Amino acid sequence: MTNNIVEVRDMTVEFRKPRGALLAVNHVDFDVREGCVTALVGESGSGKSTLAFTMLNIVNTTGRILSGEVLYGGRNILELSTEELNAYKWKEVSMIFQSAQSALNPLMTIQEHFWETYHVHEPHAKEEDVIPRFRQLLEDVRLDPDRVLKLYPHELSGGMKQRVMIAFAMLLEPKFLILDEPTTALDVITQDYIFSILDRIHQETGVSMLLLTHDIGVVAKVADRIAVMYAGRIVEMGDIFEVFRSTAHPYAHALITTAPSLLDRDEDKEPIPGTPPDLIDLPAGCAFHPRCPYATELCRREVPVLRTVGEDHQAACHHMETFRKEAGIHG
Ligand code: SF4
Description:
Layout: E1 4-17, E2 20-33, E3 37-41, H1 48-54, E4 63-72, E5 75-76, H2 82-92, E6 93-96, H3 110-121, H4 127-140, H5 145-148, H6 158-169, E7 176-180, H7 188-205, E8 208-213, H8 216-222, E9 225-230, E10 233-239, H9 240-245, H10 250-257, H11 297-301, E11 307-310, E12 313-315, H12 320-327
Parallel strand pairs: 3-8, 3-9, 6-7, 7-8
Antiparallel strand pairs: 1-2, 1-4, 4-5, 9-10, 10-12, 11-12
Helix pairs in contact: 3-4, 4-6, 6-7
The protein binds iron/sulfur cluster (SF4).
C-alpha cells in the first residue's frame, strides 16, 4: 500500500473581487501519493494552481483559506511557524512556478543563484564545498556546468532556463516537487526533452511530483495518477489507466477525447461546448450542468459528491452509469 506524502482535507479558498467572492477551491479532498507522479488537470481558472498554493501555504497574500488543512508528515502545514514553513519549503517541498524563468535575477550568474539559496538554508556551508553539487545538478538536467555556472540568465535560451529552474528546485533534495505548467511557452521538442529529464529525475531520486497542466497529452506520458478539476472541485481522480480506460465523468471524458495526441481521427474530436462558469456566480448543483448533455433536474439542484467507481478511482457525477452506457465506456 502506497502512503500519501501530502493530504489536503476539506480545502476551500476564496478571493475577494470587486464583484464579490470568487470561490477558487471548493471543499476539496486530495492526496498526493508518495513516489508517484500525480497530474492535476483542468482548464485555466479551474483552481489547480490555488490548490497547489495551499500546499505551500502561500495563498494568503491575495486569497483566504476558509476551511481545510494540509497534512505533511502528520502536521498541518497551515499551522507551521515562519521558520518551520521556510524549512518545509525547499527542503521538503519545492515548486516550479509558471514563468519561473522570469524569477532569475538578471544581475546574478547561475552559480550566484545556486549559492545564494543554498547559503540561506545552510549558513555554515562553504561555497567551494558545494560547487560539485551545483555541477551535478546541472549535469542531471543535461547542461554543461563549466559553461552554464558562469552565465547570466539572458545568455540562456528558454529551454535552458527552465532546466536551470528544475536543477534549482532539486538543490536541497526535496521529497516533493510541484510543477505548475513547467513547459508553457516552450516549443514541442523542448517540452518533450524537459519531460524526459523530469521522468529520469523521478526514476532516479523517487521524488514525488505534482504536475499542474491543462495538456492531457502530457499527462498520458508521465503521470501515474490523475485528478481532474472543474470550477474549484475535483470531479474525477484515480490511477491514470483506470481513469483513461473507464472515465466516469462527462467533463473528464471530454478533456481526454479532445486531446490531440490521444485520438488519431481529427474528425472525431469536438471541443467542449460552452465556456467555464463564472466562479463568482457559480451555477447551482453540478457546475458543469450548463455544458453537459446528460444534465437533469437533479444536476441543476444538487452538487454531486465523489464516489468510488473502481479500485483507486473516484468520480462525482449523478448520472455516470447513463453517461458511460451512452459513451460506450465499460466500468
Ligand atoms: Fe453532467 Fe449531471 Fe454528471 Fe454534472 S452531475 S457531469 S451535469 S450528468
